[in-house]
Amino acid sequence: MSPKEKLYGDIIDSLANRNISFALYRAPEDKNIHFLAQTTGHIRTFYDLKELNGEQGFVIAPFHSGSNKPIVLIQPDCLELEKLAATPCEPLNELDDAFEENNQDASKEEYTRKFHAFVQPLQEKEFDKLVLSRSTTLRREATFSPAAAFFRASKRYTHSYVYLCYTPQTGMWLGSTPEIILSGEQGSWSTTALAGTQSLQQGELPINWDSKNKKEQQLVASYIRRQLQTLHIQPTEKGPYAVRAGELAHLKTDFHFALQETNSLGDMLKLLHPTPAVCGLPKEKAYRFILSQEGYDRSYYSGFIGNLNPSGRTDLYVNLRCMHIGKEQLTLYAGGGLLPTSKLADEWNETEKKLQTMLAITNN
């Protein structure tokens, strides 16, 4: 790290210990890093995305909200990191430890069992697509710096949205994601369909995609299109085209549309989330199946994160390549879309490659 990054990093790394809720983020292709913190008042929590209608702040939303996994809204009162260098501290709560106790690694054998449990109803045509994910844990080294990992990710993953955030309710999370769920301002808005995965070819985007990846992307794009049409929105589309995310490539379709009523963004988010890129089809049935059969709590992985501002700029991203940073361990997450034709070895290897996005920044 540069001397300036080291100075800022020391402050950032102290914020969670001082129980200060904050977010540090860098937008795709942007050289500027943005910081915000809430130093006073209670962090607001919600349990239904519709409750975000008319709200403004930095949102951290889980895959499935519940009593111990709320939708969290940081409403910043500080945008200058230097001002927090001498802010008084409060005792850190124990939510991180409770989080870690409830998460266990999925071994290859456990993943194999779940893979077959997911593929069978796909082959029986109960679902068009299901997303199977897993987590893995690493011991947190004494020298690990969340801020240093963020700066490494910011430099390494220039095409993605990179963030580091903390609240007492969520614990600390670090991630890098290329997938917008909702972005825009005034009357101009967009969302994306991102699905299909393969490795870069000699550092370049692949030209050819197999039928499984094309089908997976088509399902997500069709879902986005249908959901927007229920609001009588006729979007203009660009894609699918290949995009880079770390050392992987995905297929992406952009949807652009006008939106005159911006005080109901929570309604739109509820309509879109969770997309088939992280859940499945049919949506509600797949959602229930994953919650009952995946065997662990995704927490804030495959939720969404970012700035919500109905009267200004909104940029919300699906929380894909990410990790929870606990006191003693790091919990990394990855998943992949399954179709009836999916092969176990291919899907396991895909999650291994996706985990590398966060693994690559955990070491100096």
Automatic annotation (TrEMBL):
It catalyses: chorismate = isochorismate. Its EC number is 5.4.4.2. It comes from the Bacteria. This is isochorismate synthase. It comes from Bacteroides graminisolvens. The keyword Isomerase applies. InterPro entries: ADC_synthase (IPR005801), Chorismate_C (IPR015890), IsoChor_synthase (IPR004561). SUPFAM superfamilies: ADC synthase. Keywords: Isomerase. Residues 108-354 form the Chorismate-utilising enzyme C-terminal domain. Belongs to the isochorismate synthase family. GO terms for molecular function: isochorismate synthase activity.
